[in-house]
User: What shape does this take?
Amino acid sequence: MVPLSYYLVLGGFLFACGVAGFLIKRNIITIFMSIELMLNGVNLSFVAFAAHWHALAGQIFVFFVMVVAAAESAVGLAIIIAVYRTRETLNVDQVNLLKL
Amino acid sequence: MTASLNLWLIPVLPLAGAAINGFLGKKSSRTAATTIGLVFSGAAFAWALYVAARFSALDLPYQEYLAHWFRSGTFSVDFAFYLDQLSLVMLLVVTGVGFLIHIYSVGYMWEEEGYYRFFAYLNLFMFFMLMLILSNSYLGMFIGWEGVGLASYLLIGFWFTKDSAVSAGKKAFIVTRIGDCGFLIALFLLVQHFGTLNFTQVFEQVRPFAPENAGAGFLTATALLLMFGACGKSAQLPLYVWLPDAMEGPTPVSALIHAATMVTAGVYMVSRSHMIFERAPIALTVVAVIGTLTAFFASTIGVAQMDIKKVLAYSTVSQLGYMFMACGVGAFSAGIFHLMTHAFFKGLLFLAAGSVIHGIGGEQDMRKMGGLRSYIPVTFGTMFIATLAISGIPPFAGFWSKDEILWKAFSSGPAGRVYWLIGLITAFITSFYMFRLIFMTFFGDYHGAHVDEHGQGSHGHGGDSHGHGEPHESPMVMLVPLMILAFLATVGGLVGIGDRFEHFLAPVFGSGEVAAAAGEAASRGTEFLLMGISITVAFLGLALAYVLYISKPYLPQKIADGLNGFYTTVVNKYYVDEIYARLFVKPLVDGSTRILWHGVDQKMIDNTVNDAADGARKVSDEVRHMQSGNLRSYASWIAAASAVMIAYMIWLGVGR
Assistant: This one.
C-alpha cells in the first residue's frame, strides 16, 4: 500500500504549483486554472486522510469542494468574459481600477 | 411652639424677582421691570417687618426646616433657617436698606442699557445675602457668601463694555476668593472635629472647650481661617484692594453691596462664630490688630483721593476696620451696632454721591465739583447729615456706635488702649477727609463748566448720556430714599443709648462677653471723658478741613508739595496694588506663561498629541502601499502570511 506521506507530498506539490502559478502568471484564465490546481491539491489531501483514517467526512468534503469549484468556475468564467468584453485584455496588471 | 413664620419666603421672593426679570425682562418695558424689581424686594422687606413684629412672641433662636439637602455618611445638611436677634438686625438692615436702594436705582439707572438686567442682578444679590443671613448652618452661609460674590462680580462689571469695569469685577471676585479659601478650610476643620456645620450643633460642642490661652489649637486655627475669609469679603488688610476698584460699578451697587450689606458679611460671620472666637484669644487679638490697622491705613489713603467714590470706598474699608476692632476686643454687639449705623450713613453717603454724580452728568472728580450746595440742596442736606454721622458728631448715628467701639476697646485691657488711640486718630482723619469731601464738593465755586472745556468728563459713570448743563437736582424717586436714610442716620444711633442695643443682642452673645467684665470695672466718668475726647477730635477734623479747604484753599497744595515724596505715595495708595502686582500677580502670570503654558501645555501635552498624530501618519504612509490594488500582490501577502502561519504551527508541533 502506498504510504500516506506520498499522497500528502503530491498534494503539497500540486498546491505549491497552484500558488506559484497564481503569483507568477498574468493571464486571468491561467490564474483561474492555478486555483483549480490548488483546490485539487487540497482534495487529494482530504481523500488521502479519509482513506487513512477510514473516515467518510473527508470524502464528503471533497464533493463539497468540487461543487463549489464548479459553481466558481461558472461564475468566474462569466466574469472573465465580461472583463474581456469591457477591457479587451486578460492581463491582471491592467485590470487595476481598484488601485490607489 | 409658635406658628411657622415662613422665613423661606424672605430670600425666595427676591429670587423670584431676579428670575422673572432675568428671563423675561429683555422683552418687557422698563416700567414692568421696575415693578417686578420693586415689588419683590419690597415684599421681602414687608415680610421681614412682619417677622420683626412677631419677634417678641418667638422661642429664640427660632429655627425653620424647609427641606433636606444632602447626606454623606453621618454628615448631613438641610435647607433650614435660623433666626435670632443678630439675624433679625441683619435682616432688617439688608431688606430695608436694600429696598430703599432699589427705589433709588429706578431714578439712577433709568436711562441705562440693560435696565432690567440691573434689577435682576440686584434681586439676585438680595436673595444670596438673605441666604447668608438666615441659613442655619455654615454651609448655607457659604452658599450665600459665594452668591453675593457672584452678584457683586456681575454688578461691578455691569458696564461690561468698559475694560476697567470688567477687570475690577474680576479683581473683586478673585481677591475675595482668596479669603473664601480660608473660610472653606475652616469649614472642613469644623466638619472634621464636630461632624456638622449646623450652628446650634457646632456651638453646643464648642461650648465646653476652655479658651486656648496657651498656644494655638484647633479652635485658634479655625478662628484664624474664618477671619481670613472675613478679611476677603469685608475688605480688610491684606485683602482690601478689591473694594476701591469695585467703585467701577454703578453707584447704587456701591451703596448696597460695597457699603451697606455684602462687605459687612465678614463682621456678621465673625459675630456669628463668637463662640469659637471667644475661645481663641490669639485669633481675637489678630482680629483686633487687623481691624485697627485697616481702619487707620485706609483712612490715610482716603485723605488724598480725588474721586468722590474712592474717598467713600476707603472710608468704608476704614469703618469696617472699626467693626473688626470691636469684634477683636470681644464687643461683638458694638461691632453689629456700628454695622447697622454704618449701613445707614454709608449707604446714604454713596447714594448722595450718586445723586451728585447724576446731577453733574457723570463727573466723579471732586476738583471739578464745588459750590454744588445751591444747585442740589436736598442732596447736600442729606449728605451733610451722613457726614456728621460718620464723623462721630452727636447726636447722629455714627457717634453712638463709634464711641461704643472706642469705649469697649479702651476698657478691654492694656492693648485696648493702643487700639483706642489709633481708633481715635482714625476718627480724626475720618472727620477730616469727610468734611474735605463736603467742602470740595458743595462749597466754593463750581469748577465743572470751565474744566469741561478740556474735553474731560468721559471718565467714570459709563453710560450716563445726558449732557453737562447746569447741575440739576435728582428726581424724587432718588431723593426720597436719601431722606429716609438721612432720618435713619440721624436717629439710628439712639437705640444704643443706655446699652439698649447691647442688651437686645445679649441672648446671642451672652453676658459673658470678654469685654463686659472689664467694662464694668471702669467708671462711667471715664466713659464720658472718652466721649468728650472723641467729640473734640471729630470737631478738630472738621476745623482742619475748614481751614484747608475753605478759608485757606491754597494750603493743601503747599502741604502736599512740602511732603512731596510722602504725598505721592499716599495718592498712589502706598503702591499696594503695584506691590501685589509685583509680588503675586507677576510671578503667577510669568510662572503660568513659562511653566504651565510653554512648558506643560505646549511642550508636554501638545507635543504628545502632535507626535502621536505624526507617528500614526508616518506609519500609515508606509503601510498604505500594501494596498496597491494589484491582485497578485494581495495574493503574495496571503501566501506569505500562510507560509508564516504554517511554519509557526510546524514549529509548535516540533517543540511539543
Summary: DSSP finds 27 helices and two strands in chain B.
